[in-house]
Amino acid sequence: MSVRFRILSILISLATGGTLHAISLPEAQELYRARRYVEAQAAFEQLIAAEPGNAEAAYRLGRLALLRDDPATAVKWLEKATALTPQSSSYFKSLGDAYGLSAQEAGLFSKPGFARKSLAAYQKGVELDPQSVSAREALYTFHRQAPAIAGGGAAKARTEALEIQKLNAVRGTVLLVDLGVAEEKYQEAFDALENLRRTHPESLAALYQIGRVAALSGLRLEQGEAALKECLAHTPDETQAPLWAARWRLGQIFEKKGDPASARAEYAAALKLNPDQPQLIEARERVK
User: Fold this and answer.
1) Mean pLDDT, the chain, as a whole number?
2) What radius of gyration do the chain's Cα atoms show?
3) Which residues of 89-112 are buried (b: 16+ CB within 10 A; e: fewer)?
């Protein structure tokens, strides 16, 4: 049976109140993977009503709440999921996301509490699966963004980035470069990327980051331009920077080289790919 036919069968079952058959977990997950989120929501709600102890259904309902920026509902379901399956690293990582989103939307006096809960959930996720790049990257992002008083800090972020680098050389190096750029350690960033190019010559991420660092620092502009043009000759996958971002960085390099006409052309090309990106709109206005 084709994926399309299976999804159609599931939708018919949902539309008829499940009279054809009860929705199974794999069927609900199929809808989620297909990004049929409204139907997936109905399917997981049907599952949790029939099986209140179904941790995966609770987890998916929490993830769906995160997708629609509903932190209170996300926290409710993800707390239930982690209570039902306390050994799941991914459940705790998502619970940390929910607490983090809650912190963003909370009032002044509630923010620290949600931040502490977010940190604890991310730490638990890493404790449960130290090899999880996803869990470690969530903890890295927390340390990168949160002030020291909330448990964050650049030194802690660097520690996580180094651990990630052991698990995934490309991703860990990109995070270390991000920290280097924030601290204006541009030479260190370029050195790390050149080493990554030697060890992983197939990596488009290294090419993009060389262009990004050049665009932000104003250094090695020719190298950055060449790297971004090479990026544009390939089709990135979902883990890599999109083509509009490469054109945006190339436009920034042309600006720094005193070539506004070429910068305008790159920004225009980037806007065709992503017309609603505020940074591109601002860049286009700047070089009119």
Assistant:
1) 92
2) 22
3) bbbbbbbbbbbbbbbeebeeeeee
Question: Cβ distance 145 to 111 under 8 Å?
Answer: no
Phi and psi angles of residue 260, each rounded to the nearest 5 degrees, phi first: -65, -30
The DSSP call for residue 23 is P
Query: Does residue 220 register a pLDDT over 90?
Result: yes
Distance between CA atoms of 186 and 51, rounded to whole angstroms?
A: 54
List, in sequence order, the alpha helices (H) in the chain.
3-15, 25-33, 37-50, 55-67, 71-84, 89-105, 111-128, 133-145, 154-167, 169-182, 186-199, 204-217, 221-232, 243-256, 260-273, 278-286
Closest CA to 257 of 219, 210, 211: 219
Q: At what angle do helices 243-256 and 221-232 cross, to 10 degrees?
A: 150
In this prediction, residue 12 carries a pLDDT of 43
For the chain, which domains are there? Answer: 202-288 (1.25.40.10)
CA atoms within 13 A on the CB side of 113: 7
Tokens of 209: 């980051």
pTM of the complete model: 0.84
User: Smallest Cα–Cα separation from 122: which of 92, 164, 83, 160?
Assistant: 92
Tokens linked to 208: 């993009």
For the cut 70, the answer to whether the pLDDT of residue 52 exceeds it is: yes
- pLDDT score of 67: 97
